[in-house]
Amino acid sequence: MTTQPSDNDLIAQVLRGNQQVFAELVKRYQNFVFTITQRYVDSREDAEEISQDVFVKAYRSLRDFRGDSKFSTWLYTITSTTCITHLRRKKQDVFSLDQENVFARAENLNSGFNANEVEQKSKINMVNSAIALLSPDDAQVITLFYKAEQSLDEIANIMGLETNTVKVRLHRARQRLKEKMEKHFVAELNDLR
């Protein structure tokens, strides 16, 4: 069994001059970046363009990555900043997690016909639809914790909050998500039981 090199190992290789290794980081995080980008823009083409810009910026700034947090946290910050800059240039509205089907569109990028995959995607779409009903702050903390797999400390760093505040917000957001699911997805939840 071979183990995959860690993000920090790959970064060290890139910084030592092996630029081709950066492609592995892109491969690992392209869906992560694209999903975040689609929260901000409606156009798939814009999301693809911004995602490319994010990886170019990340590559150029790789020496600035100190390793204090996960690479994904650092990349999230670059992605968010790049999206906001893009929107300011285009003078468009920012699309929040309240917009319908933002996550559903991202989840359907790799659609398959396997029955288990279809069922799993149906569950994911149900949860994503429920997340879309939450306030932007609740949706962000849920997304960062469950989808981006960030720790409470990392979320606090991203959102500019204290860790205990994030813990409380996450708890309350989970409660509200449960309420939304029980109110809007009764039949789907019964099918799962």
From TrEMBL:
SUPFAM superfamilies: Sigma2 domain of RNA polymerase sigma factors (SSF88946), Sigma3 and sigma4 domains of RNA polymerase sigma factors (SSF88659). CDD domains: Sigma70_r4. Coiled coil: none annotated. Keywords: Sigma factor, Transcription, Transcription regulation. Residues 25-91 form the RNA polymerase sigma-70 region domain. InterPro entries: RNA_pol_sigma-70-like, RNA_pol_sigma-70_dom, RNA_pol_sigma70_r2, RNA_pol_sigma70_r4_t2, RNA_pol_sigma_r2, RNA_pol_sigma_r3/r4-like, WH-like_DNA-bd_sf. Gene3D superfamilies: 1.10.1740.10, Winged helix-like DNA-binding domain superfamily/Winged helix DNA-binding domain. Residues 127-177 form the RNA polymerase sigma factor 70 region 4 type domain. It comes from the Bacteria. Belongs to the sigma-70 factor family. ECF subfamily. This is Sigma-70 family RNA polymerase sigma factor. It comes from Pinibacter soli. The lineage of its organism: Bacteria, Pseudomonadati, Bacteroidota, Chitinophagia, Chitinophagales.
